[in-house]
Design brief:
It contains nine helices and 21 strands. A six-stranded mixed beta sheet has the order 1-2-6-3-7-20, sandwiched between helices. Strands 8, 9, 18 and 19 form a four-stranded mixed beta sheet that branches. The protein is elongated, with a radius of gyration of 23 Å. The two termini are 22 Å apart.
Length: 387
Protein backbone atom coordinates (compact mmCIF):
# COMPACT_ATOMS: atom_id res chain seq x y z
CA UNK A 1 0.00 0.00 0.00
CA UNK A 2 1.33 3.42 -0.93
CA UNK A 3 1.98 5.99 1.78
CA UNK A 4 -0.63 8.31 0.31
CA UNK A 5 -3.33 5.67 0.81
CA UNK A 6 -2.19 5.03 4.38
CA UNK A 7 -2.50 8.76 5.05
CA UNK A 8 -5.91 8.89 3.39
CA UNK A 9 -7.24 6.02 5.54
CA UNK A 10 -6.28 7.81 8.74
CA UNK A 11 -7.81 11.06 7.49
CA UNK A 12 -11.03 9.26 6.67
CA UNK A 13 -11.27 7.76 10.15
CA UNK A 14 -10.77 11.17 11.79
CA UNK A 15 -13.55 12.66 9.65
CA UNK A 16 -16.05 10.17 11.12
CA UNK A 17 -17.35 11.60 14.39
CA UNK A 18 -17.49 8.75 16.89
CA UNK A 19 -17.80 10.69 20.14
CA UNK A 20 -19.32 7.95 22.31
CA UNK A 21 -21.54 6.89 19.38
CA UNK A 22 -21.76 6.21 15.65
CA UNK A 23 -19.03 3.54 15.52
CA UNK A 24 -21.08 1.78 12.84
CA UNK A 25 -19.54 4.09 10.23
CA UNK A 26 -16.02 3.14 11.29
CA UNK A 27 -16.88 -0.57 11.24
CA UNK A 28 -18.44 -0.31 7.77
CA UNK A 29 -15.51 1.74 6.48
CA UNK A 30 -13.02 -0.87 7.70
CA UNK A 31 -15.18 -3.69 6.34
CA UNK A 32 -15.13 -2.09 2.89
CA UNK A 33 -11.37 -1.65 3.17
CA UNK A 34 -10.87 -5.28 4.16
CA UNK A 35 -13.20 -6.48 1.41
CA UNK A 36 -11.21 -4.50 -1.14
CA UNK A 37 -8.06 -6.34 -0.07
CA UNK A 38 -9.68 -9.79 0.39
CA UNK A 39 -9.42 -9.93 4.18
CA UNK A 40 -12.15 -11.98 5.86
CA UNK A 41 -14.20 -9.80 8.23
CA UNK A 42 -17.51 -9.50 10.04
CA UNK A 43 -19.33 -6.41 11.27
CA UNK A 44 -20.98 -7.21 14.60
CA UNK A 45 -23.89 -4.89 15.39
CA UNK A 46 -24.46 -4.24 19.08
CA UNK A 47 -26.79 -1.22 19.27
CA UNK A 48 -28.33 1.11 16.74
CA UNK A 49 -25.48 2.89 14.91
CA UNK A 50 -22.93 1.10 17.11
CA UNK A 51 -21.02 -1.83 15.60
CA UNK A 52 -17.85 -3.78 16.32
CA UNK A 53 -15.76 -5.45 13.63
CA UNK A 54 -13.60 -8.58 13.65
CA UNK A 55 -11.25 -9.61 10.83
CA UNK A 56 -8.61 -12.30 10.44
CA UNK A 57 -5.98 -13.82 8.18
CA UNK A 58 -3.87 -16.96 8.42
CA UNK A 59 -4.61 -20.61 9.16
CA UNK A 60 -6.49 -22.52 11.83
CA UNK A 61 -3.44 -24.44 13.05
CA UNK A 62 -0.97 -22.69 15.34
CA UNK A 63 -1.17 -19.77 17.76
CA UNK A 64 -3.58 -16.83 17.56
CA UNK A 65 -2.41 -13.24 17.89
CA UNK A 66 -4.94 -10.41 18.14
CA UNK A 67 -4.54 -6.74 17.28
CA UNK A 68 -7.24 -4.83 19.16
CA UNK A 69 -8.50 -1.29 19.53
CA UNK A 70 -11.57 0.90 19.86
CA UNK A 71 -13.53 3.01 17.40
CA UNK A 72 -15.01 5.63 19.74
CA UNK A 73 -13.43 8.86 20.96
CA UNK A 74 -13.99 11.24 23.84
CA UNK A 75 -15.80 14.54 23.32
CA UNK A 76 -13.91 17.41 21.72
CA UNK A 77 -14.80 19.59 24.74
CA UNK A 78 -14.47 23.36 24.24
CA UNK A 79 -14.03 23.91 20.52
CA UNK A 80 -12.64 27.38 21.11
CA UNK A 81 -9.50 25.72 22.50
CA UNK A 82 -8.89 23.95 19.18
CA UNK A 83 -6.90 25.74 16.51
CA UNK A 84 -8.02 23.13 13.94
CA UNK A 85 -11.35 21.47 13.18
CA UNK A 86 -11.37 18.39 15.46
CA UNK A 87 -13.28 16.32 12.90
CA UNK A 88 -11.35 17.30 9.78
CA UNK A 89 -7.85 15.86 9.72
CA UNK A 90 -5.25 18.62 9.33
CA UNK A 91 -1.61 17.91 8.44
CA UNK A 92 1.02 20.50 9.37
CA UNK A 93 4.76 19.83 9.50
CA UNK A 94 4.32 16.05 9.35
CA UNK A 95 1.80 16.03 12.19
CA UNK A 96 -1.86 15.16 11.85
CA UNK A 97 -4.39 16.88 14.10
CA UNK A 98 -7.91 15.73 14.96
CA UNK A 99 -10.04 14.23 17.71
CA UNK A 100 -9.06 10.62 18.16
CA UNK A 101 -5.98 10.65 15.96
CA UNK A 102 -3.87 9.60 18.95
CA UNK A 103 -6.58 7.84 20.99
CA UNK A 104 -6.73 5.69 19.01
CA UNK A 105 -7.58 5.88 15.33
CA UNK A 106 -3.91 5.90 14.31
CA UNK A 107 -3.43 2.62 16.15
CA UNK A 108 -6.59 1.21 14.59
CA UNK A 109 -5.53 2.24 11.08
CA UNK A 110 -1.96 0.97 11.55
CA UNK A 111 -3.19 -2.45 12.68
CA UNK A 112 -5.70 -2.74 9.84
CA UNK A 113 -3.12 -1.72 7.24
CA UNK A 114 -0.55 -4.15 8.69
CA UNK A 115 -3.01 -7.02 8.24
CA UNK A 116 -3.83 -5.92 4.70
CA UNK A 117 -0.16 -5.69 3.72
CA UNK A 118 0.60 -9.11 5.20
CA UNK A 119 -2.31 -10.54 3.22
CA UNK A 120 -1.27 -8.90 -0.03
CA UNK A 121 2.35 -10.02 0.41
CA UNK A 122 1.07 -13.58 0.90
CA UNK A 123 3.12 -13.92 4.07
CA UNK A 124 2.77 -17.44 5.43
CA UNK A 125 1.54 -17.35 9.01
CA UNK A 126 1.67 -20.39 11.27
CA UNK A 127 -1.59 -19.56 12.97
CA UNK A 128 -4.08 -16.72 12.77
CA UNK A 129 -3.88 -12.96 13.12
CA UNK A 130 -7.12 -11.37 14.33
CA UNK A 131 -8.23 -7.75 14.29
CA UNK A 132 -10.87 -6.53 16.74
CA UNK A 133 -12.30 -3.01 16.89
CA UNK A 134 -14.90 -2.20 19.52
CA UNK A 135 -17.48 0.34 20.57
CA UNK A 136 -17.66 2.39 23.78
CA UNK A 137 -14.20 1.77 25.22
CA UNK A 138 -14.04 5.30 26.58
CA UNK A 139 -17.13 4.93 28.79
CA UNK A 140 -18.10 1.30 29.38
CA UNK A 141 -15.76 -1.09 27.51
CA UNK A 142 -19.08 -2.48 26.32
CA UNK A 143 -17.87 -3.60 22.91
CA UNK A 144 -15.00 -5.65 24.32
CA UNK A 145 -17.36 -7.19 26.86
CA UNK A 146 -19.79 -8.09 24.07
CA UNK A 147 -17.06 -9.79 22.02
CA UNK A 148 -16.03 -11.75 25.11
CA UNK A 149 -19.61 -12.86 25.73
CA UNK A 150 -19.79 -14.20 22.18
CA UNK A 151 -16.59 -16.25 22.46
CA UNK A 152 -14.46 -14.18 20.12
CA UNK A 153 -11.52 -14.02 22.53
CA UNK A 154 -11.57 -17.68 23.55
CA UNK A 155 -8.99 -18.73 20.94
CA UNK A 156 -6.57 -15.80 21.38
CA UNK A 157 -3.15 -16.58 22.91
CA UNK A 158 -1.63 -13.09 22.90
CA UNK A 159 -3.01 -9.63 22.22
CA UNK A 160 -1.65 -6.18 21.46
CA UNK A 161 -3.93 -3.22 22.08
CA UNK A 162 -2.94 -0.23 19.97
CA UNK A 163 -3.61 2.51 22.53
CA UNK A 164 -1.09 5.38 22.41
CA UNK A 165 2.04 4.65 24.42
CA UNK A 166 4.27 7.55 23.40
CA UNK A 167 5.39 10.67 25.21
CA UNK A 168 6.52 13.68 23.23
CA UNK A 169 10.11 14.61 24.04
CA UNK A 170 12.29 16.93 21.97
CA UNK A 171 9.96 16.62 19.02
CA UNK A 172 10.05 12.81 19.04
CA UNK A 173 7.76 10.18 20.51
CA UNK A 174 9.37 7.87 23.05
CA UNK A 175 7.31 4.73 23.47
CA UNK A 176 6.90 2.23 26.28
CA UNK A 177 5.57 -1.31 26.27
CA UNK A 178 2.73 -1.38 28.79
CA UNK A 179 2.30 -4.69 30.60
CA UNK A 180 -0.07 -3.70 33.41
CA UNK A 181 -2.65 -1.11 34.33
CA UNK A 182 -5.04 -0.37 37.15
CA UNK A 183 -8.64 -1.38 37.05
CA UNK A 184 -11.51 1.07 37.18
CA UNK A 185 -14.67 1.17 39.25
CA UNK A 186 -17.32 3.84 38.71
CA UNK A 187 -20.31 3.94 41.01
CA UNK A 188 -23.15 6.21 42.10
CA UNK A 189 -24.42 6.55 45.64
CA UNK A 190 -27.96 7.96 45.91
CA UNK A 191 -29.54 9.54 48.95
CA UNK A 192 -33.33 9.91 49.23
CA UNK A 193 -34.69 12.34 51.80
CA UNK A 194 -37.97 14.13 52.43
CA UNK A 195 -38.84 17.54 51.02
CA UNK A 196 -40.06 20.34 53.27
CA UNK A 197 -40.26 24.11 53.30
CA UNK A 198 -36.97 25.68 54.32
CA UNK A 199 -38.76 27.57 57.10
CA UNK A 200 -39.66 24.24 58.75
CA UNK A 201 -36.61 21.99 58.13
CA UNK A 202 -37.59 19.75 61.04
CA UNK A 203 -40.44 18.41 58.87
CA UNK A 204 -38.04 17.19 56.17
CA UNK A 205 -35.04 14.89 55.79
CA UNK A 206 -32.03 16.55 54.19
CA UNK A 207 -30.70 14.15 51.54
CA UNK A 208 -27.51 16.18 51.19
CA UNK A 209 -26.70 16.01 54.90
CA UNK A 210 -27.18 12.25 54.85
CA UNK A 211 -24.97 11.87 51.78
CA UNK A 212 -22.26 14.02 53.39
CA UNK A 213 -22.32 11.78 56.45
CA UNK A 214 -22.00 8.70 54.26
CA UNK A 215 -19.25 10.32 52.22
CA UNK A 216 -17.19 10.91 55.36
CA UNK A 217 -17.44 7.21 56.17
CA UNK A 218 -16.53 6.35 52.57
CA UNK A 219 -13.43 8.55 52.63
CA UNK A 220 -12.35 6.98 55.93
CA UNK A 221 -12.79 3.51 54.40
CA UNK A 222 -10.48 4.26 51.48
CA UNK A 223 -7.93 5.97 53.72
CA UNK A 224 -7.72 2.82 55.83
CA UNK A 225 -7.49 0.55 52.76
CA UNK A 226 -4.47 2.21 51.16
CA UNK A 227 -2.45 -0.88 50.29
CA UNK A 228 0.09 -0.84 47.49
CA UNK A 229 0.96 -3.03 44.51
CA UNK A 230 4.63 -3.35 43.52
CA UNK A 231 3.83 -2.42 39.92
CA UNK A 232 0.61 -0.42 40.06
CA UNK A 233 1.03 1.58 43.26
CA UNK A 234 -1.94 2.47 45.45
CA UNK A 235 -5.69 2.63 44.93
CA UNK A 236 -6.79 6.04 43.62
CA UNK A 237 -10.12 7.25 45.04
CA UNK A 238 -11.67 10.35 43.44
CA UNK A 239 -15.25 11.47 44.25
CA UNK A 240 -15.85 13.54 41.12
CA UNK A 241 -19.52 14.55 41.17
CA UNK A 242 -21.71 15.63 44.09
CA UNK A 243 -25.16 17.07 43.43
CA UNK A 244 -28.38 17.68 45.36
CA UNK A 245 -31.28 20.05 45.84
CA UNK A 246 -33.55 21.85 43.40
CA UNK A 247 -34.21 25.28 44.86
CA UNK A 248 -33.02 27.38 47.74
CA UNK A 249 -36.25 27.42 49.79
CA UNK A 250 -36.80 23.64 49.91
CA UNK A 251 -35.12 20.95 51.96
CA UNK A 252 -33.48 18.67 49.38
CA UNK A 253 -35.14 15.29 49.02
CA UNK A 254 -32.50 13.80 46.71
CA UNK A 255 -28.73 13.93 46.31
CA UNK A 256 -26.11 11.76 44.67
CA UNK A 257 -22.39 11.38 44.24
CA UNK A 258 -20.41 9.66 41.49
CA UNK A 259 -17.02 8.21 42.23
CA UNK A 260 -14.14 6.87 40.16
CA UNK A 261 -11.74 4.42 41.80
CA UNK A 262 -8.58 3.20 40.08
CA UNK A 263 -8.16 -0.27 41.53
CA UNK A 264 -5.34 -2.71 42.30
CA UNK A 265 -5.47 -6.49 42.94
CA UNK A 266 -5.00 -6.03 46.70
CA UNK A 267 -8.38 -4.27 46.92
CA UNK A 268 -10.51 -5.86 44.17
CA UNK A 269 -13.50 -4.13 42.60
CA UNK A 270 -16.08 -6.51 44.04
CA UNK A 271 -14.63 -6.24 47.54
CA UNK A 272 -14.99 -2.45 47.37
CA UNK A 273 -18.62 -2.79 46.29
CA UNK A 274 -19.37 -5.30 49.04
CA UNK A 275 -17.67 -3.18 51.71
CA UNK A 276 -19.45 0.01 50.68
CA UNK A 277 -22.79 -1.76 50.64
CA UNK A 278 -22.09 -2.86 54.21
CA UNK A 279 -21.41 0.74 55.21
CA UNK A 280 -24.64 1.83 53.51
CA UNK A 281 -26.61 -0.93 55.27
CA UNK A 282 -25.46 0.40 58.64
CA UNK A 283 -26.62 3.92 57.79
CA UNK A 284 -29.94 2.60 56.51
CA UNK A 285 -30.66 1.08 59.93
CA UNK A 286 -31.61 4.65 60.84
CA UNK A 287 -35.08 5.32 59.36
CA UNK A 288 -33.99 8.80 58.30
CA UNK A 289 -31.48 7.30 55.83
CA UNK A 290 -32.28 5.84 52.43
CA UNK A 291 -28.99 5.26 50.65
CA UNK A 292 -28.24 2.97 47.70
CA UNK A 293 -25.23 2.14 45.54
CA UNK A 294 -25.29 1.51 41.80
CA UNK A 295 -22.24 0.20 39.92
CA UNK A 296 -21.92 2.07 36.62
CA UNK A 297 -18.75 0.38 35.39
CA UNK A 298 -16.26 -2.20 36.62
CA UNK A 299 -13.02 -3.18 34.91
CA UNK A 300 -10.42 -5.27 36.71
CA UNK A 301 -6.69 -4.55 36.96
CA UNK A 302 -4.56 -6.05 34.18
CA UNK A 303 -1.10 -7.60 34.35
CA UNK A 304 0.85 -9.82 31.97
CA UNK A 305 4.29 -11.42 32.47
CA UNK A 306 7.23 -9.91 30.63
CA UNK A 307 9.09 -13.22 30.24
CA UNK A 308 6.90 -14.38 27.34
CA UNK A 309 7.50 -15.08 23.67
CA UNK A 310 5.36 -12.21 22.44
CA UNK A 311 7.43 -9.70 24.45
CA UNK A 312 10.64 -11.04 22.90
CA UNK A 313 9.09 -10.67 19.46
CA UNK A 314 7.87 -7.13 20.21
CA UNK A 315 11.32 -6.06 21.43
CA UNK A 316 13.04 -7.49 18.37
CA UNK A 317 10.58 -5.70 16.09
CA UNK A 318 11.02 -2.47 18.05
CA UNK A 319 14.79 -2.53 17.62
CA UNK A 320 14.32 -3.07 13.88
CA UNK A 321 11.56 -0.49 13.33
CA UNK A 322 12.00 2.12 16.08
CA UNK A 323 15.73 1.77 16.52
CA UNK A 324 15.56 0.95 20.21
CA UNK A 325 14.38 -1.58 22.73
CA UNK A 326 11.25 -0.45 24.52
CA UNK A 327 11.15 0.47 28.16
CA UNK A 328 8.38 -1.35 30.00
CA UNK A 329 5.83 0.40 32.16
CA UNK A 330 2.37 0.53 33.71
CA UNK A 331 -0.63 2.85 33.46
CA UNK A 332 -3.22 4.21 35.86
CA UNK A 333 -5.82 4.51 33.12
CA UNK A 334 -7.87 1.54 31.93
CA UNK A 335 -8.30 -0.14 28.54
CA UNK A 336 -10.37 -2.90 26.95
CA UNK A 337 -7.72 -5.28 28.30
CA UNK A 338 -9.75 -5.37 31.54
CA UNK A 339 -12.58 -7.14 29.74
CA UNK A 340 -10.37 -9.46 27.70
CA UNK A 341 -8.24 -10.65 30.60
CA UNK A 342 -11.26 -11.05 32.89
CA UNK A 343 -12.78 -13.37 30.28
CA UNK A 344 -9.49 -15.20 29.74
CA UNK A 345 -7.18 -14.79 32.76
CA UNK A 346 -4.17 -16.47 31.09
CA UNK A 347 -4.31 -14.14 28.07
CA UNK A 348 -1.11 -12.16 27.57
CA UNK A 349 -2.19 -8.59 26.81
CA UNK A 350 0.22 -5.75 26.06
CA UNK A 351 -0.45 -2.17 25.10
CA UNK A 352 1.66 -0.57 22.39
CA UNK A 353 0.57 1.95 19.82
CA UNK A 354 1.37 5.10 17.89
CA UNK A 355 0.34 8.34 19.52
CA UNK A 356 1.32 10.42 22.49
CA UNK A 357 0.12 12.30 25.55
CA UNK A 358 -2.13 14.70 23.61
CA UNK A 359 -5.04 12.24 23.95
CA UNK A 360 -8.27 13.85 25.24
CA UNK A 361 -6.76 17.34 24.81
CA UNK A 362 -7.42 20.14 22.33
CA UNK A 363 -5.33 19.91 19.15
CA UNK A 364 -4.78 16.19 19.70
CA UNK A 365 -2.12 15.10 17.22
CA UNK A 366 0.29 12.41 16.09
CA UNK A 367 3.56 12.59 14.21
CA UNK A 368 3.10 10.73 10.97
CA UNK A 369 6.56 9.14 11.16
CA UNK A 370 5.38 7.22 14.22
CA UNK A 371 2.20 6.16 12.45
CA UNK A 372 4.07 4.70 9.48
CA UNK A 373 6.67 3.05 11.73
CA UNK A 374 4.01 1.25 13.71
CA UNK A 375 2.47 -0.27 10.58
CA UNK A 376 5.79 -1.97 9.91
CA UNK A 377 6.31 -2.81 13.59
CA UNK A 378 2.94 -4.58 13.78
CA UNK A 379 3.78 -6.55 10.65
CA UNK A 380 7.10 -7.67 12.12
CA UNK A 381 5.44 -8.69 15.38
CA UNK A 382 2.85 -10.80 13.53
CA UNK A 383 5.50 -12.48 11.38
CA UNK A 384 7.75 -13.15 14.37
CA UNK A 385 5.03 -14.52 16.63
CA UNK A 386 3.33 -16.60 13.93
CA UNK A 387 6.49 -17.74 12.18
Amino acid sequence: MQEAEKLSILKDLISINTVNDNEEQIANYLADLFDKHHVKNEVIDQFEKRSNIVAEIGHDSGKVLAFAGHEDTVHENNRSEWTKDPFEATVINDKMYGRGVTDMKAGLAAMAIAIIELQEAKVKLNGRLKFMATISEELTQGGAHYLCQHGLVDDVDSMIIGEPTGIQKAGENQHKLIYAHKGALIYTVKSVGKAAHSSTPELGIDAIDNLINYRSAEKKYFAEKMQSDDDLGTTIYTPDIFQGGKQVNSIPDFAFEQVMVRTIPQLPNQQIVDDLNSIIAKFNQDSNYQLSLEVNFSGNPVSSPLDTEVVDVIQTASIDQLGTQLETGVLSMGTDASQYQTEKPDLNVFILGPGNDTAHRADENIDLKSYYQFIDLYKEVAKGYLK
